[in-house]
Amino acid sequence: MLINKSIILLILSLGFSNFSSESRKLVVTYYQEPEILNGRIKQLIEIRPTHDGDVPELCPIDTTNFDKKGDAIETILGTNTRTCVVNHYLNKYDKDGNKTETIVNGIDNNDKVIYKFNCAGYLLESEYGNNKGRVYKENAYRYDKKGYIIEMIHYSDLSRVLFKEKYKYNKTGNLIERDLYKRGTEFMNRIHYTYLSFDKKANWTKRIVTREDVRQGIVEKHTIIHKIFYY
Fold first, then answer.
1. How far is 83 from 155, CA to CA, in rounded Å?
2. Which residues lie closer than 8 Å to 200 by C-beta, 6 or more apart?
């Protein structure tokens, strides 16, 4: 994985905020990567090697299933062999298509995520709680004038800033750069996204993700594959 799971605050599986139309939606993935999805997607499979050269059958694979309204109803994190499921996310939505909560059934946790939207349908906050109702994390989001997420701030249960992430996009709205700051100010690493192929709906199907660790001087490069099926 490009970022240690202790840094990733379990999120969204694929969580929607409104964008411009029913066939073009802005999402935030489990890996904190804002993306635009085009078309009436039925299933999205992501193959994400931990290291370049990994055997495909052993690479982590994430499967997200969508209903006909375009809502991501579940995400399964597992492996290409289907023999191991890491986490299973089930999503609920309101009548306006805004996701209200995610139930996480996993090896390490069984949590619930609650989402808060503004009147325009943009995701503003997500709260993470355990099965006893205790909230222990919170994410807040900022957008630019085009509706893209440009900043995500991760808070502890004591409202302390844990991490801040900043995002940049190209002209077509694809994520091209992501910066991570510890405690909101200490620059930790930068991730670059290079796109190699797209399908007929203009959804990317292959990209290279390059991570630069400023503190350790480490550069990691991975090729990510999307397999997308439509209604």
1. 34
2. none
- Cα separation, 25 vs 19, whole angstroms: 5
Element (H, E) at 154: strand 149-156
9 located within any domain: no
Residue 156: name the closest of 179, 132, 185, 135 by CA. Answer: 135
Parallel/antiparallel/unpaired status of strands 34-38 and 24-29? antiparallel
pLDDT attached to residue 73: 93
Token couple for 8: 């990733």
Six token digits for residue 122? 């943009």
Label residue 56 by pLDDT band (50, 70, 90). low
Q: Are strands 112-117 and 99-106 parallel, antiparallel or unpaired?
A: antiparallel
Mean pLDDT of 191-212: 96
Say if 37 falls within a structural domain: yes
| Average pLDDT over every residue of 210-221 | 86
List, for residues 67-84, the tens digit of each pLDDT value: 998 889 999 887 655 556
> Is 3 within a domain?
no
CATH code assigned at 220 = 2.40.160
For residue 184, give the DSSP letter: T
The answer to whether the beta carbons of residues 77 and 90 sit under 8 Å apart is no
pLDDT digits (tens, 9 = 90+) for 107-127: 666 789 999 998 888 889 999
Count of residues in the chain: 231
92: three-class secondary structure by DSSP: strand
Q: Which domain holds residue 221?
A: 14-230
